[in-house]
Amino acid sequence: MFRLLSALVNAWSIPELRRKLSFTLGMLAIYEVGIFIPVPGINGKELGRIFDQLAATSGGGLLNLLDMFTGGALSRATVFALGIMPYISATIIVETLLATAIPALEKLRKEGMTGYRKLHQYSRYATVLLAVVNSFMYAILLEKAIPAQFHTQIVLSPGLGFRLLTVLTMTGGMALIMWLAEQITERGIGNGMSLLMTASIVGRIPLAVRDIAVQLGPGGMNQSPIAPLAFAFMGAFLVVIVMAVIFVEQGQRRIPVQYARRVVGRKIYGGQSTYLPLRVNSGGVLPIIFAVSLLYFPIQVAGFVPQLSGLMEWFSRTSLAFNLLYAVLIVFFTYFSTALTAHQFLDAADQMKKVGAFIPGIRPGQPTVEYLDQTLTRVTFVAAIYLVAIAILPDVIMAWMKIPARVAGFFGGTSLLIVVGVTLDTMKQIESHLLMRHYEGFFKTGRMKGRR
In principle, which of 200, 267, 334, 359 could form an S-S bond with 71, CB 3.0–4.6 Å? Predict the structure, then answer.
């Protein structure tokens, strides 16, 4: 703890790092303010009551899961109700999927910074398009699907005018979120998209604490009996899960690489040993994000077809069918996202052959490619099981201990994965700045003390 506090004090004493931290905190503050600005023409109190009812009766459902990613903006129908998800989805689709499948975009990706700027501009256009579609479908959902299920009126003046107003305000809010994320990445510290999503998740902690207080307070014990001993067990269990996530996220499969020895004149070159690192969870949180986005699509379709309004009840996070489908999609997208980056290891095999490097016991060339592919497949299987366990864990806790969805969401799933991963990456970036100026970092165990 003392090392952590000392590193934070040293970070604030560096002018350049202090400007980056201040700018990042300022952008996050603007984002938090936008979460509470409502879209005109909506009964926000009634909509919030419906989301609370969904969280209490159906285990939260997908709507409450997405609401956590937006920091509660979705349940309040604010200008930031779409959150950062359209930007992330558009970036992944354009810069990963399409850039691999379309030769013209793949050529842009290989052109360096100039091609990257053009590719990123296409991602912005795709973000605006996704924001228009999602905001229009969300307006239909507020007008038809939710009122048909709960027999209430959320939109004060439904019609084309409300839909256009919702599309304009939410798309504008999405554009502002995109700008904030890019400004943080360029002028702040850390990745802007990840930090905004982390801020949304962390912003839900007070509501989770309130739910725990209600459950432990007078009158709450009858509805969901959580004893103080069980609450202590939940806290200890949370610490164990965080440690497990850190262990897996930092885990690597190190493949030994040996360089051949060459004799040039009287000197001997090569003969060194190194390793090729394969991350256990190379796909990160992308498989879970893809799975959630795909599962949310039927609910959006139900907004256009009133006969399908029952899908909102079927997509309950505690139902067996939903969790099985969720797990299958996560496994599929884990292998899919790993396959998109597998060409890097094939290129590594070619480079190893050119410089005279080899894996001990494996012949260079095609046998090396097959060995790397087999090893990557095994590591991906471990990552898929790990992601499924982390994603389904909140639902198991919610059903077992009878606790609210907002509380259970902090015991696993995408929220815990994002918060821990982003925190580690941001701390590493800050530590790199500290070490460059001979300060002691967060994780360093040496004798460097730093200067004041």
Answer: 200
Greater confidence (25 vs 404) lies with 25
CA–CA distance, 390 with 406 (Å, rounded to integer): 16
Contact in structure between 417 and 288 (CB atoms under 8 Å): yes
Q: Is the pTM of this model over 0.85?
A: no
Region 406-432: what's the mean pLDDT?
A: 75
Query: Looking at the domain 2-436, which fold is it?
Result: Preprotein translocase SecY subunit (1.10.3370)
Integer Cα distance of 321 and 327 in angstroms: 10
Helix axes 413-436, 15-34, angle to 10 degrees: 160
Count the helix, strand and coil residues of the chain and give each as a percent rounded to the nearest 5.
70, 5, 25
pLDDT digits (tens, 9 = 90+) for 331-361: 988 888 777 666 666 677 777 777 777 788 8
Angle between helices 61-69 and 44-57 (to 10 degrees): 120
Query: Measuring CA to CA, how many Å separate 3 from each of 121, 126, 171?
Result: 42, 44, 43
Alpha-carbon distance of 186 to 237, in angstroms, equals 37
**What would the two tokens of residue 223 be?**
């509805």
pLDDT tens digits for range 170-194: 999 999 999 999 999 899 888 888 8
